[in-house]
TrEMBL record:
Residues 10-64 form the HTH lacI-type domain. CDD domains: HTH_LacI, PBP1_GntR. Pfam families: LacI, Peripla_BP_3. Keywords: DNA-binding, Transcription, Transcription regulation. This is LacI family transcriptional regulator. Transmembrane segments: none annotated. GO terms for molecular function: DNA-binding transcription factor activity; transcription cis-regulatory region binding. It comes from the Bacteria. PROSITE patterns: HTH_LACI_2.
C-alpha cells in the first residue's frame, strides 16, 4: 500500500530553524543575497533543497510593505528617565501617519530578544532600542532588519545603524571632578540596579578618583532605585567611611534618598556634605537646598529618534553608522559649594 504524500508545505521558519539562523536571514538569502555571507547562504540553500521549500512570491511582496508603526523597546516604564523618552517619541509622532508601539522587556535580554522578533514580524517603519547590550541573536536580527534602527541612551555602543545618546562615563567623571574643584576631598559613590549605564558612571567616578589619588568609597545594591534605598546606601557608606564629605550617585532617586538621610542626621548641605545626582528630574530644583545633578536630555532622545526614523523610513542603511551625542550639563545647585 503506497504512502500518501504529506500535504504539509515547509515554511520559511522551518528553513530558519533547520539552518540555525533567523527567519530574516533566510528571507535575505532570497531578496538580498549580497547581504548574507557565502557560508550562511550555502547552508540555507542546502536546507531549502532538503526540505523542498518554495518561496511564496505573493507573500514576499506583501512582507516587503512596511507598516507605519515605530517600535520603541525599553527596559522599564516605571522609571521617569524612560517616561521622558516615551513623551518625546509620542510628541514627534503626533500629527503624522506613524504610530508608536511600546515594548517593556524589564531589563531582561531574552525578553528583549523575543520582543524584537515580534516587532520585526510586523514590518515596522523603524525600531528604537535602549543601549547595545542585546543578545547575539537579537543583534543579528537588528543588523538584518529591513528597517532603520536607532540605539538610544549611549554613544559608546557597537553601532548597528543610528545612535543617539550621551557618554555616561565622561558625564560622571565631569561631575566628580566638579566636586573635587569645590573642595570636597573624600567622595563616595552610591548606586542601585547597576546596569550598563550605571557601570559606566561608576567607571567615570573611579577614573577621576584614581587620577586624584583619592580613596574609592563605594556602596551599591542590585535592587531597583528608590529614595529609601538611597538613604540606606548612604547610611552604609557612613558606617564604613564616616569621614566621607560628598557623594556622586548613579541617579536622582538615590541622590534624593541621600539628601533625606543628611537632613535626618542634621548634616549641613553644602557646607559639610555635597551631593550630585544624575538625570535631573523635575523635583530636584524645587528642594531647599536644591539638588545638584547631571542633566541629560531624555525627551530629545525619544523625539529625535522618531524624527530620524520618519525622515529615513524609505532609505537604505549607509555603510557607516551615524552617531549623535546629545551631551550633558552639570547643574550645580544648593547641595554643592561654589567653585
Amino acid at each position: 500500500m503506497s504512502k500518501k504524500k504529506s500535504r504539509y508545505a515547509p515554511t520559511l521558519n522551518d528553513v530558519a530553524r533547520e539552518s540555525g539562523v533567523s527567519a530574516i536571514t533566510v528571507s535575505r538569502c532570497f531578496r538580498h543575497p549580497e547581504k548574507v555571507s557565502d557560508a550562511v547562504r550555502k547552508r540555507v540553500m542546502e536546507t531549502v533543497e532538503k526540505l523542498g521549500y518554495v518561496p511564496n512570491s505573493a507573500a514576499s511582496a506583501l512582507a516587503s510593505r512596511r507598516t507605519d508603526v515605530i517600535g520603541l523597546l525599553l527596559p522599564s516604564l516605571n522609571n521617569n528617565v524612560y517616561l521622558d523618552v516615551v513623551s518625546g517619541a509620542f510628541d514627534r509622532a503626533h500629527g503624522t501617519r506613524h504610530a508608536i508601539q511600546i515594548g517593556n522587556h524589564k531589563y531582561s535580554p531574552l525578553e528583549e530578544e523575543k520582543l524584537i522578533r515580534i516587532f520585526l514580524q510586523q514590518n515596522p517603519a523603524g525600531l528604537i532600542v535602549a543601549g547595545g547590550e542585546q543578545t547575539e541573536a537579537a543583534t543579528e536580527m537588528l543588523r538584518e532588519a529591513d528597517c532603520r534602527v536607532v540605539q538610544i541612551m549611549d554613544t559608546d555602543v557597537d553601532p548597528i545603524d543610528l545612535v543617539i545618546g550621551l557618554d555616561h562615563e565622561r558625564a560622571a567623571g565631569e561631575a566628580v571632578a566638579g566636586l573635587l574643584a569645590r573642595g570636597y576631598e573624600r567622595i563616595g559613590f552610591l548606586g542601585a540596579r547597576m546596569d550598563t549605564r550605571s557601570q559606566k558612571r561608576l567607571a567615570g567616578y573611579r577614573r577621576v578618583i584614581g587620577d586624584s589619588g583619592g580613596e574609592e568609597r563605594i556602596a551599591t545594591s542590585p535592587m531597583p532605585s528608590s529614595a529609601r534605598l538611597g538613604a540606606q546606601l548612604l547610611a552604609d557608606l557612613f558606617a564604613r567611611y564616616p569621614d566621607t564629605d560628598a557623594v556622586f550617585t548613579n541617579n536622582d532617586d538615590i541622590a534624593l534618598g541621600a539628601y533625606l538621610e543628611c537632613q535626618r542626621r542634621a548634616i549641613r548641605m553644602p557646607e559639610d556634605f555635597g551631593i550630585v545626582g544624575f538625570n535631573d528630574m523635575d523635583l530636584l530644583e524645587e528642594l531647599n537646598p536644591s539638588l545638584s545633578t547631571v542633566r541629560t536630555d531624555r525627551y530629545r532622545m525619544g523625539h529625535d529618534s522618531v524624527d530620524r526614523l520618519i525622515a529615513l523610513a524609505d532609505t537604505a542603511r549607509p555603510e557607516g553608522a551615524a552617531v549623535l551625542d546629545l551631551g550633558h550639563a552639570c547643574m550645580w545647585r544648593g547641595t554643592t559649594r561654589e567653585a
